[in-house]
Write a structure and sequence with these properties.
Blueprint (H helix, E strand, L loop, with lengths): L3 E6 L5 H11 L5 E5 L6 H13 L5 E4 L4 H8 L5 E5 L1 H10 L4 H17 L3 E7 L10 H20 L2 E6 L2 E4 L2
Parallel strand pairs: 1-5, 1-6, 2-3, 2-4, 4-5
Antiparallel strand pairs: 6-7
Helix pairs in contact: 3-5, 4-6, 5-6
């Protein structure tokens, strides 16, 4: 049976490490890490490389900066567990590609469908960005709202939802 676990929390709250540990605890022999980050500058390239180095070599990496639902569908039943890290960067890529809110909402629905139809367990990492001050610009407010909506949609379909705070998992669902 396909299982979807949404792991959310603030920046540097331990989401990715938690996802890696949960994936390894399953005893997966064919784990896949689906990375959504794009190396747009040197700092981001260094972060991506550090993230890559921190993963156990058993993980195969698939890049999916924009085409996340399609990449998940292409995996078929090859992996036994997949980590998607992270929805925040995927959404940022969609926004920066100039997609409309309605197109982004459709892409979110396609992602939800791909996760429901997957032949593997999924650990999906996302950020909570709506707990701070209201962004002072329209792009920031738009991004916050789009991510909040996407997180709600995925939390509704997820079998389990975990909120990470200071490295500690709090099971919400």
């Amino acid at each position: 049976m396909t299982q979807v676990i949404l792991i959310t929390g603030g920046a540097r709250s331990g989401k990715s490490n938690y996802a890696l540990n949960r994936a390894l605890e399953t005893g997966a022999r064919r784990p896949v890490f689906v990375a959504t980050a794009k190396p747009l500058d040197r700092e981001m390239a260094a972060r991506i490389e550090a993230h890559r180095q921190s993963r156990p070599p058993v993980f195969r990496t698939v890049e999916a900066a924009l085409e996340l639902p399609e990449k998940l569908a292409e995996l078929g039943s090859e992996p036994d567990v997949v980590i998607v890290d992270c929805l925040t960067l995927w959404l940022s890529n969609l926004v920066m590609a100039g997609l409309s809110d309605s197109t982004i909402a459709q892409r979110g629905q396609e992602l939800a469908q791909a996760l429901r139809q997957a032949g593997f367990a999924s650990l999906v990492v996302s950020n909570e960005v709506g707990w701070g001050i209201v962004p002072d610009n329209a792009l920031g407010r738009r991004f916050r709202d789009l991510l909040g909506t996407l997180n709600q949609e995925l939390a509704a379909l997820a079998d389990e939802v975990v909120l990470m705070v200071a490295g500690l998992p709090l099971r919400l669902k």
